[in-house]
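Design request, tokens follow.
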């Protein structure tokens, strides 16, 4: 898929090396197509890595998309160059009058804190509320999924006895849903989290549906508002080496670091990972774009309600 991206975004050159078709603004201006507008609120510390991971997945349909990045005014990232943020990111206030076909809100390294104690809680929940009237369909990932379920539906999160870390089997609960078209009976999803949401809480809320889960990692995808919201507790977007980087980063620095489950060949880090989630990740994002964004969004983007 031709992705419309800002000129000089680092992900462009990285993904061209993977034979993924992306276009910068200069080339796009020569075409007369109404691209889907996708906005990403990137709350992850390593923003360039997350940008690349998400763009890689968005590249897998024939639809043209324009991707832009949103940042919080109430939080300054410490692990991404200021110049990168100034060049490629816009504050919510700059984007709040626009409407978007799709939105992705990433995880954030704040899950150990009560939601209301997160420094940017007020701003991020304002963005959640805004998305309901300015975006056709929104994906909430990991911490954002827990935060969205709590903010909109009062679903609590619970601390886990130890970090849920690895690749876990997931089962679609209704394969007739368009989001699971082409899926096998089992798919795999990376998880890296210290907290969870529970099925029994979700089942008591009208309008929420658990659409996939795992005997090992619990609830994995929750759908609301007929697909205008998806809450994903894991990280389908992770690159093959992401869990390896996290494991080696924390080894020797924390006392709760365990080998990621179902990840390394022979459970040996030296043997490298076995990638089991890439095909389902591509299919999930393609289905989301095709059936919950493109098929649902109005041609006149200002008609989104």
């Amino acid at each position: 898929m031709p992705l419309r991206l800002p000129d000089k975004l680092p992900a462009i050159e990285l993904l061209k090396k993977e034979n993924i078709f992306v276009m910068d603004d200069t080339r796009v201006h020569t075409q007369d197509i109404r691209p889907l507008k996708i906005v990403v609120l990137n709350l992850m510390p390593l923003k360039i890595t997350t940008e690349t991971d998400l763009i890689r997945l968005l590249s897998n349909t024939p639809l043209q998309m324009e991707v832009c990045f949103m940042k919080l005014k109430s939080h300054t990232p410490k692990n991404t160059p200021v110049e990168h943020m100034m060049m490629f990111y816009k504050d919510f206030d700059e984007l709040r009058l626009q409407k978007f076909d799709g939105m992705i809100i990433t995880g954030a390294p704040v899950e150990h804190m009560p939601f209301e104690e997160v420094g940017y809680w007020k701003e991020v929940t304002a963005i959640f509320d805004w998305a309901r009237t300015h975006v056709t369909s929104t994906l909430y990932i990991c911490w954002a999924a827990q935060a969205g379920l709590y903010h909109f539906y009062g679903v609590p999160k619970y601390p886990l006895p130890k970090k849920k870390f690895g690749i876990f089997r997931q089962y679609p609960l209704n394969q007739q849903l368009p989001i699971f078209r082409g899926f096998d009976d089992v798919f795999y999803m990376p998880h890296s989290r210290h907290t969870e949401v529970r099925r029994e809480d979700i089942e008591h809320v009208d309008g929420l549906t658990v659409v996939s889960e795992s005997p090992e990692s619990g609830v994995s995808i929750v759908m609301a508002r007929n697909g205008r919201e998806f809450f994903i507790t894991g990280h389908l977007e992770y690159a093959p080496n992401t869990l390896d980087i996290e494991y080696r980063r924390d080894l020797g620095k924390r006392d709760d670091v365990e080998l990621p489950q179902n990840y390394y060949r022979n459970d040996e880090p030296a043997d490298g990972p076995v990638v089991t989630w890439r095909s389902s990740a591509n299919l999930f994002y393609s289905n989301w774009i095709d059936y919950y964004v493109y098929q649902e969004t109005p041609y006149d983007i200002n008609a989104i309600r």
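Comment from the thread starter after seeing the answer: thanks! Residues 1-31 form one domain.
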